[in-house]
Write a structure and sequence with these properties.
This protein is α+β, with helices and mostly antiparallel strands. It is built from four helices and three strands; from the N terminus they run H-H-E-E-H-E-H.
Length: 106
């Protein structure tokens, strides 16, 4: 009986590690997809904790890729309009993330 419990526990630990690795990969490859998946998994499909469906708050610094170059920006009303027009545009929390993405996707 104990052997069966240990085996089940080991299998659950392996599965949990697989999901962690998967989540880290998705997060690294596509921040917006990761954010949407987390919202879905949490059951908060309609809004984030702050009541907004945007990935950043007004005044937050973020990076994007424009014409093959990493651009620094500050989230504002225009950012929200652009996001509403194309929510799949990659946005990054750091310049390093944006450069990594740009390098991988050239």
């Amino acid at each position: 009986m104990n052997r069966l419990i240990i085996t089940k526990k080991d299998n659950l630990i392996k599965e949990l590690e697989w999901w962690r690795t998967y989540g880290e990969y998705v997060s690294e490859m596509d921040r917006n997809l990761n954010e949407k998946a987390c919202i879905y998994a949490d059951g908060d499909e309609d809004e984030d904790e702050d009541g907004s469906h945007y990935p950043f708050n007004e005044g937050d610094i973020y990076w994007t890729i424009e014409h093959g170059h990493v651009e620094r920006s500050m989230w504002d009303v225009i950012s929200e309009e652009l996001y509403d027009e194309n929510p799949d545009t990659p946005l990054f929390e750091s310049e390093e993330e944006a450069l990594k993405f740009l390098t991988k996707n050239k």
